[in-house]
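Field: sequence (string)
Field: structure_tokens (string)

Example rows 1 and 2, in order.
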Amino acid sequence: MMMTDLRLDYQPYRPTPWVGLAMLLLVSITVALVADYFVGLNNQAAVLEAKVQHIKAAANIDVLKPVVHSGVNRSPEVKRANEVLRKLTTHWEDLFVGLESASGEKVTLLELAPDLEKHTVKINGEADNFASLMNYITALEGQIVFGPVYLQSHQVQMLDPQKPVRFSLLAVWQETP
């Protein structure tokens, strides 16, 4: 007697896994679409980089060309820019420290009007009496930041019981560098 091959199969028969094949097909299509999208983005990036290089090249050519003015007078703009720059670079702290150092309890400042072009500052204020005003003028002239100080006008306030003196001074402002 002849012996036949013995086949032991303990696994039950399973039909083809259609769900798994459907998932594999879906994932394959998704990967193909993503790859196509990636290639499209890569092409777009290359086109944009070429445009950037073209713009950079055009900008370098424009820089080398001589500047042609359109005939528009820009001097008011330049003057205004210089004025703003001068105001920003002015040593305002020196002016205020000088004013505060010279003032006392008997003088009240009401208005300051600096003129940067003339290097002067107009000071309007009120003093308790004329002697206090004269002491204030002397104190201002003693400050490093001020040159001569001129009394432009003064008026005793007769209606006020204290009779203060309203004054207007013009001080030469010596701006330190």
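Row 2 begins here:
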Amino acid sequence: MVNSDPSFKIEDYAQKHPKWSAEIKLLHKIISATGLTAAIKWGVPVYSVDGKNVVGIAAFKNHMALWFYNGVFLKDKAGVLINAQKDKTRGLRQWRFDETTEIDEKRVREYVKEARQNQLDGKEIESKKKKVEIPEILSKALDGDAELRDAFKELTPGKRNEYAEHIGSAKRKATQVSRLEKSKKLIVQGVGLNDKYK
């Protein structure tokens, strides 16, 4: 039986996507038998082991898919996996299903079990973290406000980078100032720029 976030209900996600309701529930049942923890992340069902994402279910207009977060390591004996976002992802692989696809429970279970084991074995794509420069306007604001500076230091590196890039990418000085002012409240609250989308 799958462990689950108390707020997780596969029925809620299936209801939002009636076209794929039966397939979503079937995939959830298959994945649940593999010992992964279920939660809703980014608005979709995601299954993890030891806090690391392994596979997710996503429904779209014309197809639905399993997303394997480190799918690049799967053997893919059946040749079903695609890299749907070649320019953006290195490790993600997607297995699509449409109206004509019959879900092979045994094969799906094999892929999920292999993905789970790969994660337990530590097979992960190392992220290419680009170093983001703190824009001058943000740097000056941090220097002049101890509360803001301390709150900024408490943010994760990823969240700090989000703010730095968001503020620094504005071409006009007035836009940078506006973005900085809007960001200050969130920073002091310890909230990431994109947390509301997660």
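free_text_note (row 2): The chain is about 40% helix and 15% strand.
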